[in-house]
């Protein structure tokens, strides 16, 4: 079973977001991590490999710093990685990134493609599905349980008010939701082994893509930060008294009940 | 030339979802400035009865595809229908709900149409003919204004509870365009093996106007009952923090936050939740936040509009009784 996993590096979940003097998101001093949903995808790939045999390839696109995230995935147990870094990637959107990834995957043999269902930074939840569309793969989105059998995947996914069990033929894309598994930590041994694992680094040129092809469809014109909330009201009194007053405020002041 | 504002209509159990009316309201807002027509896309089986209400809430036209093959949502069938309709009619804008279905469909259709997609929008502005969407990034710690300058259609998914549905206008009717359904079995790769619905009379978490949420302070699964009682009095959904989910007290589909659901109700009542950034990521855009926590220094009080410092086991039952009394006399 050949499995490819899409990996994105994101800001740490605790990162404090600010804008720099150009009104762009300030990247200074921010810790970078593997997108938490992608960790579920990596973990699932490793479990499938442990059960069925095969090979796990990590695919990541971004600035040179992504190497840290790629390395961590290799230390968790992935076998090899392909990294696409290129200055020309600055300003690309989901459309462009999906094109780059599809190009990488086009040169790669795989039975299963896994990714997180969304990244916690832009939260746009499109890249993986666009890749599936470009490559003509079926997909199951937001999956909390996955069963791989000969030539097919059976996936449980969340829908509003319940769950749905869907079967798709392989190769297919599955996007991971929390609940799928508990990601492992890299072990000391894993870290040592990761040093010897192959990471293939590619530029857009080497992939045969020119910048015009990945011209973004959507553009961010500006960023802004939320306006701080005025301080809330702590309702005084004992529990019963405060509860009564809260009920009144929700009704008469906020008018929400 | 691209023309027309399209909205994708979602429905459940024979009823149009409120979100669909919200989308119509967003569509009308654009149409008012551009003079374009607003069309709703209605796919499903046995759904022609829903056309009327779409007209009343602002659709000028309804593209109706009523067919057995569309009885349940599948990416392949719905994706093919929507993209082929769009290729043929060239709308300038397609809006979908930021729901499980909307997100799934929008990304694939955007790629089929070689266009951009703005996910998870919480606002739109029309400046000098340019449609600008506002969307949260970094889980709501910042916002981006995003445009799709050249590619058409402009596609976006819109969060529930952002736009206010318009007043239904009696007698307002939409023109119905019956869409031929040419779907082959070979177009479909997703086979739905099973659908398991939770039997709940409560609203869906992501759509609920009021959410009563519990965290580690609930101390055990059995105690969620007191939240459910309050939720039922308020017609609210129940939510939870990751700590409550990871303790196995409640299913993870109820989790609110960075790795859970993003919600934007008008009222969010957080009980025994400390207010970690990961939890806030999912609920801080709630209109009003109420916090009940026995730790006066809990972070949740920083975002709360109303806070009670106290034992939730004493506060919540009284709150339930009070709300019951109040709502009975309205
Ligand atoms: C990658 C990652 C993703 C995460 N994603 C999420 C997410 O999506 N959602 C999420 O919620 N968390 C998430 N977390 C976890 C998050 O960091 C916190 O651990 C979690 O939110 C804490 O939940 P809590 O507030 O219920 O628990 P605690 O932080 O333990 O808070 C419990 C609170 O209950 C109060 N309390 C206790 N007893 C009572 C009582 N009798 N009456 C009143 N108050 C009482 C305490 O004072 C305390 O403030 C994530 C963490 C990571 C690392």
Automatic annotation (TrEMBL), chain A:
Sample GO molecular function, one term: electron transfer activity
Domain of life: Bacteria
Gene3D superfamilies in the cross-refs: HUPs (3.40.50.620)
Any Pfam family matching the protein: ETF
GO terms under cellular component: cytosol
Signal peptide: none
Keywords noted in UniProt: Electron transport, Transport
PROSITE patterns: ETF_BETA (PS01065)
The protein's required cofactors: AMP
Keyword match DNA damage: no
Segments forming domain Electron transfer flavoprotein alpha/beta-subunit N-terminal: 22-211
Family: Belongs to the ETF beta-subunit/FixA family.
PANTHER family noted in UniProt: ELECTRON TRANSFER FLAVOPROTEIN BETA-SUBUNIT, ELECTRON TRANSFER FLAVOPROTEIN SUBUNIT BETA
Role, per record: The electron transfer flavoprotein serves as a specific electron acceptor for other dehydrogenases. It transfers the electrons to the main respiratory chain via ETF-ubiquinone oxidoreductase (ETF dehydrogenase).
Subunit structure: Heterodimer of an alpha and a beta subunit.
Protein name: Electron transfer flavoprotein subunit beta
Origin species: Pelotomaculum thermopropionicum (strain DSM 13744 / JCM 10971 / SI)
Name of the encoding gene: FixA
UniProtKB/TrEMBL annotation, chain B:
First and last residue of the signal peptide: none
SMART domains xrefs: ETF
Keyword Flavoprotein listed: yes
One Gene Ontology term from the biological process aspect of the record: fatty acid beta-oxidation using acyl-CoA dehydrogenase
Keyword match Flavoprotein: yes
Cross-referenced SUPFAM superfamilies: Adenine nucleotide alpha hydrolases-like, DHS-like NAD/FAD-binding domain
Span of domain Electron transfer flavoprotein alpha/beta-subunit N-terminal: 5-192
The record's free-text note on cofactor binding: Binds 1 FAD per dimer.
One function term, GO molecular function aspect: flavin adenine dinucleotide binding
Cofactor(s) required, per the database record: FAD
Any one Pfam family match given in the protein's UniProt record, by short name: ETF
Residues involved in FAD binding: 216, 241-242, 255-259, 272-279, 293
Similarity section: Belongs to the ETF alpha-subunit/FixB family.
Protein name: Electron transfer flavoprotein, alpha subunit
Organism: Pelotomaculum thermopropionicum (strain DSM 13744 / JCM 10971 / SI)
The organism's taxonomic lineage, starting at the top: Bacteria, Bacillati, Bacillota, Clostridia, Eubacteriales
Recorded name of the encoding gene: FixB
């Amino acid at each position: 079973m050949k499995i490819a996993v899409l990996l994105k590096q994101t800001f740490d979940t605790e990162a404090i977001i600010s804008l720099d003097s150009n009104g762009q998101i300030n990247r200074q001093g921010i810790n970078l991590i593997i997108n938490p949903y992608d960790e579920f995808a990596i973990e699932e790939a490793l479990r499938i490999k442990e059960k069925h045999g095969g090979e796990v390839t990590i695919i990541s696109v971004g600035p040179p710093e992504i190497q840290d995230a790629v390395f961590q995935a290799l230390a968790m147990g992935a076998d090899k990685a392909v990294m696409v870094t290129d200055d020309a990637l600055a300003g690309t959107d989901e459309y462009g990134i999906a094109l780059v990834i599809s190009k990488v995957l086009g040169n790669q043999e795989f039975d299963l493609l896994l990714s997180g269902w969304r990244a916690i930074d832009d939260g746009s939840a499109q890249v993986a599905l666009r890749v599936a569309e470009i490559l003509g793969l079926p997909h199951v989105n937001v999956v909390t349980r996955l069963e791989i059998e000969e030539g097919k995947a059976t996936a449980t996914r969340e829908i509003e008010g319940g769950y749905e069990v869907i079967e798709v033929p392989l190769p297919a894309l599955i996007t991971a939701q929390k609940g799928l598994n508990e990601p492992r930590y890299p072990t000391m041994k894993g870290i040592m082994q990761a040093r010897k694992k192959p990471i293939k680094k590619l530029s857009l040129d080497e992939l045969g893509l020119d910048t015009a092809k990945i011209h973004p469809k959507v553009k961010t014109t500006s960023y802004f930060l939320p306006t701080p909330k005025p301080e809330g009201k702590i309702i005084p009194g004992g529990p019963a008294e405060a509860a009564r007053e809260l009920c009144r405020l929700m009704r008469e002041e906020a008018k929400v009940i | 030339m691209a023309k027309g504002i399209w909205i994708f209509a979602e429905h459940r159990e024979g009823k149009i979802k409120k979100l669909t009316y919200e989308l119509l309201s967003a569509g009308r807002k654009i149409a008012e400035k551009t003079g374009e027509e607003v069309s709703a896309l209605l796919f499903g089986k046995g759904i022609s009865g829903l056309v009327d209400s779409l007209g009343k809430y602002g659709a000028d036209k309804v593209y109706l595809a009523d067919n057995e093959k569309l009885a349940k949502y599948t990416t392949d069938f719905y994706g093919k229908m929507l993209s082929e309709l769009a290729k043929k009619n060239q709308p300038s804008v397609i809006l979908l709900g930021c729901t499980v279905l909307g997100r799934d469909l929008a990304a694939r259709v955007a790629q089929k149409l070689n266009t951009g997609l703005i996910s998870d929008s919480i606002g739109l502005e029309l400046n000098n003919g340019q449609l600008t969407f506002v969307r949260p990034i970094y889980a709501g710690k910042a916002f981006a204004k995003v445009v799709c300058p050249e590619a058409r259609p402009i596609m976006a998914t819109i969060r529930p509870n952002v736009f206010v549905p318009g007043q239904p206008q009696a007698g307002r009717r939409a023109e119905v365009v019956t869409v031929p359904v040419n779907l082959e079995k070979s177009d479909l790769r997703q086979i739905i093996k099973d659908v398991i619905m939770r039997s709940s009379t409560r609203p869906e978490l992501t759509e609920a106007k009021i959410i009563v949420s519990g965290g580690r302070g609930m101390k055990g699964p059995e105690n969620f009952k007191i939240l459910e009682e309050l939720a039922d009095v308020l017609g609210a959904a129940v939510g939870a923090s990751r700590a409550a989910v990871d303790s196995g007290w409640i299913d993870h589909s109820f989790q609110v936050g960075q790795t859970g659901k993003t919600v934007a109700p008008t009222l969010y009542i957080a009980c025994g939740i400390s207010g970690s950034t990961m939890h806030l990521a999912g609920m801080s855009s709630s209109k009003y936040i109420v916090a009940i926590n026995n730790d006066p220094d809990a972070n949740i009080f920083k975002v709360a509009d109303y806070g009670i410092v106290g034992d939730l086991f004493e506060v919540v039952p009284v709150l339930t009784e009070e709300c019951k009394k109040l709502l009975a006399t309205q």
